[in-house]
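Subject: sequence -> structure tokens, single chain

Hey, anyone have a minute? Need the predicted structure for the following. Not urgent.
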Amino acid sequence: MDVVTFGETMLRLSPPGHERIEQAGELDVRAAGAESNVAVNAGRLGAETAWLSKLPESPLGRKVAAALRAQGTTPEVVWSDDGETRQGLYFLEQGGEPRGTNVVYDRADAAVTTATADELATEFVERAGYLHTSGITPALSETLEATTADLLELAQETGTTATFDVNYRSKLWNPEDARATLEALFPDVDVLFVAERDAKEVLDREGDAEAVARGLTDEFAFGTVVVTRGDAGALAVRNDDVFEQPTVETETHDPIGTGDAFVGGYLAARVDGGSVADALEWGAATAALKRTVPGDVALVTREEVEAVLAENDSGIDR
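Reply:
Had a minute. Here:
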């Protein structure tokens, strides 16, 4: 197994086009979750992937598992028949400026919030090359905070490279609580992905992307820190070397999931033996392609990513 991820996957319900939720007569339904997005994205680019989680034994839970399986990743799921838990949902209303995009969560009491390491298929973590999760997961419940810590610790014990995306969500917790929880997890993380805005707002870091990456590396001994900077691209620090990657120009149809596409492309390249510089290129190309695809997942092919790389030939500093 190349990459195993852990986290919640919801069902995303979206009105067609730019309709408001309150006027919609129909809703498009897709499976969507940061960690499963990464698993699917990396899997479509050649990695063998699995997603660990807990779902309700219900038509909605089975829909999530079936959707991920159809997209090429293995759902290793604990099935809950507890009538007190349910399938998490979210409603996405796309809108141009000045209205913008609005997300409405309906995820309280989701089955995943009760998932413990003891009941998960942790043998996948033990034999995987990479374990990936994000800051969304420990924000969902105290149980998931403990489970995330347990899985990261297991990865360290078994030699699995642990990767973590800060992925801050203000609708889940405040910056102070997020920082305290995340910094307690960081000693068991090998590769950190963080948006520059989250580094400043949540982790209280100052300076440019390189200063942020070096400061985090010095304090928590990360093997690699990748700072994403929106239109300014991404920067990584590894073994005191600095790598910069510009964004790839794209026509945006659906930006949701762009960060997960970047991480999926990055991990797929590393699994394939690529350098950090190669991985940044693959991340940028996959993220650009994702923005042309509706839904949360980068339903793209390895050949399409390679074509984007050949066309752009970014000239990244190696």
